[in-house]
Design a protein that fits this description.
Blueprint: H1 2-9, E1 14-15, H2 16-23, H3 27-39, E2 43-46, H4 59-62, H5 65-69, E3 73-76
Antiparallel strand pairs: 1-3, 2-3
Helix pairs in contact: 2-3
């Protein structure tokens, strides 16, 4: 399952919700996978703040919803 998550990350940033949907798992399982990948150094959590929307990797599709809903976004730390 970790390998599948990393394959999805090759496309760029992914939210917990997107990961769960793509892998057909629960949100809690997706959070666990991302915590494992983060502890292994493969991903890091992108801290979303109201003032950072212009820097966010999801800015083209989000429209600021991340800030209002508290969505966690993870970005790969490896080169693709």
């Amino acid at each position: 399952m970790l390998e599948k998550a990393l394959e999805l990350m090759k496309k760029g940033s992914v939210s917990i919700e997107e990961l769960a949907q793509e892998l057909g798992i629960t949100r809690e399982e997706a959070e666990g996978i991302m915590k494992i990948l983060e502890s292994m150094g493969y991903v890091k959590e992108y801290e979303v703040e109201e003032s950072t929307c212009e820097k966010c990797p999801l800015r083209k599709v989000c429209g600021g919803k991340c800030v209002r809903s508290g969505v966690k976004v993870f970005i790969p730390t490896f080169q693709i």
